[in-house]
Design a protein that fits this description.
Layout: E1 3-8, H1 13-24, E2 31-38, E3 41-48, H2 51-61, E4 68-74, E5 89-90, E6 96-101, H3 107-116, H4 128-137, H5 142-151, E7 157-163, E8 170-175, E9 180-183, E10 189-192, E11 204-207, E12 212-217, E13 220-225, E14 236-237, H6 253-259, H7 261-269, E15 273-274, E16 279-280, H8 289-293, E17 297-302, H9 304-321, E18 325-329, H10 330-333, E19 344-350, H11 356-367, E20 371-376, H12 382-386, E21 389-392, H13 405-425, H14 429-450, H15 453-463, E22 468-473, H16 478-492, E23 495-500, E24 517-522, H17 528-540, E25 544-550, E26 562-566, H18 574-592
Parallel strand pairs: 17-18, 17-19, 19-20, 20-21, 22-23, 22-24, 24-25, 25-26
Antiparallel strand pairs: 1-4, 1-10, 2-3, 2-4, 5-6, 6-7, 7-8, 8-12, 9-10, 9-11, 11-14, 12-13, 15-16
Length: 610
């Protein structure tokens, strides 16, 4: 959940490292630091807080001048987010510097062992153990010292290490936390946990897999197995531009990404719709017709926002493909004894393709013989590489910590897969064509919803000081209610809960009074009349109702306090249209409350630790 960047070449390292940290700050922003080799010694600079604080220290106190360095931006796990606990961490003599993403699970035991050997620890972190382990193991080869240390370490890591003993190299290693190499054009090499950190300098990257390490020098690189021996790796080419990770004139990445949704939905559909046949083409789904028909049940596993899209996928797959579906939190799936076998399809959903719990669930499912399909956004990510087959979102980089465009793209891709599977089973070509036509209209309808931005900003002004919110939905829009509540609480820090509307009577109704805003998702769908009854129940208790309704619905105008209208579409696509005004509402409330919507407190974009 942290960010790593490293550089080796002929240019001054610090500007490159700081630029990379800025690109990675969405991955963690509790503290930051860097280490540079200068005249045969390791110099570090560290600061608690945002990258700007590290930049101030470098400006006021002088930046180390060297051409080899590593840097890190932190999301705290072990130890408070202080300057002392910031990475890089060094050994007793300051000869080895380490930056680390992940968790060292046996850090306590190793620390006791090292202290008994005379090592002195200066921080509360688990990472410092790695520096001392390498110091203890060093016998003339940094590569072998890293190997020896990692043989004793339990847990997950993406590591970059440099040493004054061997001031011509950076050694990196990976297990359970993403890491890649960047191949420059002029004998320059990079290491990063996310391609965004180095995209300004190269598009040629090598993705390390678990159990691999690499040694970088100015003369080249070597990829190796942690067990020993050379590993041959292909160089991948990153297709998206640097502009994709800029704000493009918007105040925040989140707002930019909300407004990108018409285009990201088009990208998710491009080349995949077969309107005449009422079907879709998904080149990434490599199972044969017979293999698809041989699936007895589906398990979808994900975390956070992706779990909400999974719930919508469950509803549509069961309704239209008539196949049993279960949705599991990935963090729970991996520790249960799930019933999956070779006739089970497990779908794992992750924007980043690096979510630790989802990756663990993937591996558990494969071990039990299930086929595993990935729905991910980041090309080359670990989940994309380890699944049997999958579907890319093509949403482009999502920098805002609160997921927006990835969520709607996930729902759309699940719709495409539902049509594909449904047409093999129970879905008629007529029904398929209806869905395809609705999908084609969707981007333009999203553009219509985005025109409500100014009105929603004014609505936000009314409710920005509310201490609690309740979100209600039924059917396909119960997960929409969950997602709307999640967006509000994660970026504005207002307590919010999403519920199936009928469940309100089983507890949450006790909370409703004149101070409780209740957001009700009530489009003209199969359960519309039922949710109108729920609105009446809220009104009877003095609650203030914000209703998301289908354009042209005048029935609720006199019943609710505020109406937000969305275009008419088929039931399975209403969550996409209904979610966007909830994203805007959360965004504007958070901005008015002075919150940092792109980097909300205690959160990071990609959860790569358990």
């Amino acid at each position: 959940m942290c960010g790593i960047v490293g550089y080796i070449g002929d240019r001054t390292a610090v500007p490159i490292l700081v630029e990379g940290l800025r690109r990675l700050e969405y991955r963690g922003y509790d503290s930051a630091g860097l280490a540079v080799l200068v005249d045969g010694r390791v110099e570090t600079r560290k600061a608690a807080g945002k990258i700007a604080e590290l930049e101030r220290i470098l400006r006021d106190g002088g930046a180390p001048v060297g051409t080899i360095g590593i840097a890190h931006t932190r999301w705290a796990t072990h130890g408070a987010p202080t300057t002392n606990n910031a990475h890089p961490h060094v050994d007793c003599a300051g000869r080895f510097a380490v930056v680390h993403n992940g968790i060292i699970e046996n850090a306590g035991t190793l620390r006791q062992k090292l202290e008994a050997l005379g090592h002195t620890f200066r921080t509360e972190t688990d990472t410092e153990v790695v520096a001392h382990m390498i110091e203890e193991a060093y016998a003339g080869s940094l590569e072998e010292a890293v190997r020896a240390a990692l043989r004793q370490i339990e847990g997950t890591y993406g590591l970059a290490i440099l040493s004054s003993h061997e001031p011509d190299r950076i050694v990196v290693a990976r297990r359970g936390s993403p890491l890649l190499l960047g191949i420059g054009e002029r004998g320059e090499y990079y290491v990063a946990s996310d391609v965004a950190a180095i995209l300004a300098h190269t598009r040629r990257v090598i993705y390390l897999d678990d159990g691999e390490m690499a040694v970088l020098t100015k003369d080249g690189y070597e990829t190796l197995s942690l067990k020993g021996g050379v590993v041959s790796k292909e160089i991948d080419h990153v297709s998206w531009d640097l502009e994709a990770i800029e704000k493009g004139g918007h105040e925040h990445f989140m707002l930019k990404e909300i407004f990108e949704q018409p285009e990201t939905l088009r990208n998710a559909m491009r080349g995949r719709l077969l309107e005449e046949d009422g079907n879709v083409r998904l080149g990434g789904v490599t199972l044969s017709r017979d293999e698809l028909l041989g699936i007895d049940n589906i398990v979808i596993t994900a975390c956070g926002t992706s779990w909400h899209s999974a719930l919508i996928g469950e509803y549509m797959l069961e309704e239209l493909a008539r196949i049993p579906v279960e949705v599991e939190y990935a963090s729970e799936f991996r520790y249960r004894n799930p019933i999956v076998d070779e006739r089970t399809l497990v779908i794992v959903i992750s924007q980043s393709g690096e979510t630790a719990d989802t990756l663990a669930a993937l591996r558990e499912a494969k071990q039990r013989g299930a086929r595993v399909m990935g729905i991910v956004n980041v090309v080359g990510s670990t989940i994309a590489r380890e699944t049997d087959f999958g579907i890319y979102l093509h949403a482009g980089p999502e920098i805002g910590v609160a997921s927006t465009k990835a969520f709607t793209s996930q729902v759309l891709v699940l719709t495409l897969f539902t049509v594909m599977l449904g047409r093999l089973r129970h879905l008629s070509s007529l029904q398929g064509r209806e869905i395809i036509r609705a999908l084609r209209r969707l981007p333009e309808q999203v553009e219509q919803v985005l025109e409500l931005n100014d009105a929603i900003r004014e609505l936000a002004r009314t409710y920005k000081d509310a201490p609690n919110f309740l979100y209600l939905g039924r059917g396909y829009n119960f997960p929409t209610a969950l997602e709307g509540a999640l967006k509000l609480k994660e970026i504005s820090y207002i307590h919010a809960e999403g519920y199936p509307a009928a469940e309100m009577k089983h507890g949450p109704i006790a909370l409703i009074d004149e101070n409780m805003p209740v957001v009700v998702i009530a489009p003209n769908d199969a359960v519309y009349n039922k949710i109108v009854s729920n609105i009446e129940e809220v009104r009877a208790r003095g609650g203030r109702v914000i209703a998301v309704v289908t354009d042209g619905n005048d029935e609720l105008a006199g019943m609710v306090d505020h109406l937000i209208t969305i275009p008419q579409t088929i039931d399975i696509l209403t969550p996409i249209l209904a979610t966007i005004p909830l994203q805007l509402l959360a965004y504007h409330i958070a901005v008015m409350r002075g919150c940092n919507v792109d980097m909300p407190r205690n959160l990071a974009k990609s959860v790569t630790v358990e």
